[in-house]
């Protein structure tokens, strides 16, 4: 069970450098647990802002979750750039 995961993407759109940092942490549930409930739940931060739209109640590997979220964000960036006819280039991509 991996408790922390980080995905880092450095990219440029029309030669303007930008970055995305996805942090996923597994936090223990406080209080009484129900039957068949996971002890941990995931918390996602993208560029320092907490994101509630990702459901990580059954997550057991934070590194895998960070990678999946980061790759989906990368795909949406690529789609937006191609729709707007902008040049998209990946400078650096890391999974920690």
Key features of this structure:
96 residues; alpha+beta; 5-stranded antiparallel β-sheet; 1 helix; 5 strands; 43% strand
Task: Strand order, main sheet: write it out.
Answer: 4-3-2-1-5
Gap between N and C termini? 14 Å
The average pLDDT value, as a whole number, equals 91
Q: How many domains comprise the coordinates?
A: 1
Rg, please? 16 Å
Which sequence of SSEs, written as H and E, runs from N to C? EEEEHE
Query: Strand percentage, roughly?
Result: 35-45%
Q: Could you tell me the number of beta strands?
A: 5
Number of helices: 1
Shape: elongated
What are the segments in which pLDDT stays under 50 over at least 5 consecutive residues? none
Descriptive account of the structure:
It contains 1 helix and 5 strands; from the N terminus they run E-E-E-E-H-E. A hairpin with a 2-residue loop joins strand 1 and strand 2. The protein has 96 residues and is an alpha+beta fold. It has one domain. It is 23% helix and 43% strand.
